[in-house]
Write a structure and sequence with these properties.
single chain, alpha/beta, Rossmann fold, 8 helices, 45% helix, binds NADPH dihydro-nicotinamide-adenine-dinucleotide phosphate, oxidoreductase activity, acting on the CH-OH group of donors, NAD or NADP as acceptor, Sc_DH/Rdtase_CS
């Protein structure tokens, strides 16, 4: 039992928004553990290129799929075709996301809509198709990617924080509804990691200083530091863990 506790070898994992950034690192981490991985983004050529690179690096089977997660119909069609081709994923990581920043009074309705569609509605669209299929099979693991910003407010990101607060609560609600199908649903909430999404921030020395001061670990996170928590939540080791939100943030949300 203990030897296989964290084993995810040959499990099929779909990671949304894995063309770059944290999603790419998470998919790579799962592939290194022997999972079969499905990479995703909007640009199929880019996703295929990344899939080839990860397959070569890890020896894992890596597929590529592309669709816009904000388009409910396109999402459903792409996922149904994917299931027909590759089978029902054992693992779904809802990672695709977007950040837009502006003072609250200057936030545009179109930016609000884009945030809600990409960071929140997409989880509903993607998860519903996948968890229906997981439910028919009788098992599955869903991991939603939240943010420290669901717990900590900051100037200029109220709408982003609101979507991530929604992700946290959607996680709990999905966990409640899907438990009877033996599907565990959890959330990983990262602290600050340097990606394309926040490049304007980590190129700003003052913001760097703020992160280092505000984080008890006194630094930004390394991509690999998210992988262990994900593997745990995707493995049999977490079979009685559901509806939880794990902050991987160097201690940021545990202090004022
Ligand atoms: P990136 O901008 O580097 O990557 C975002 C990914 O999401 C890309 O693969 C992109 O694919 C995909 N994506 C965005 N919009 C869509 C869409 N409409 N349809 C399909 N795919 C889409 O961001 P990060 O890696 O930084 O963020 C990943 C997740 O982690 C997000 O949910 C974010 O909120 C969360 N997070 C990030 C933190 C950080 O410090 N970086 C901290 C806390 C949470 P493509 O553009 O190729 O289509």
């Amino acid at each position: 039992m203990t030897q296989t506790l964290f084993n995810i070898r040959d499990r099929l994992a779909l990671v949304t928004g894995s063309s770059r950034g944290l999603g790419n690192a998470l998919a790579r981490g799962l592939a290194h553990q022997g999972a079969r991985v499905i990479l995703h983004g909007r640009n199929l050529a880019l996703v295929q290129e990344e899939a080839r690179a990860i397959a070569q690096e890890t020896g894992a089977t890596v597929e590529a799929v592309s669709f816009d997660v904000t388009d409910a119909q396109a999402t459903q069609q792409a996922l149904e075709a994917l299931i027909a081709q590759c089978g029902v994923p054992d693992i779904l990581v809802n990672n695709a996301g977007l950040q837009r920043r502006a003072p609250f009074n200057e936030f545009t309705p179109s930016d609000w809509d884009a945030l809600v569609a990409t960071n929140l509605s997409s989880l509903f669209y993607v998860s519903q198709v996948i968890t229906r299929a997981m439910g028919e099979r009788g098992s599955g693991k869903v991991v939603n990617i939240g943010s420290v910003q669901s717990k900590l407010a900051r100037e200029t990101i109220a709408p982003y924080s609101a979507t991530k607060g929604g992700v946290a609560m959607l996680t709990q609600g999905m966990a409640a509804d899907l438990a009877r199908f033996n599907i565990q649903v959890n959330c990983i909430s990262p602290g600050y990691f340097k990606t394309e999404m926040n490049s304007a921030l980590w190129q700003d020395p003052a913001f760097n200083q703020w992160v280092e001061k505000r984080t008890p670990a006194q630094r930004w996170g390394h991509f690999d530091e998210l992988v262990g928590t994900l593997v745990y939540l995707c493995s049999d080791a977490s079979s009685f863990v559901s509806g939880q939100n794990i902050f991987v943030d160097g201690g940021m949300t545990s202090v004022v």
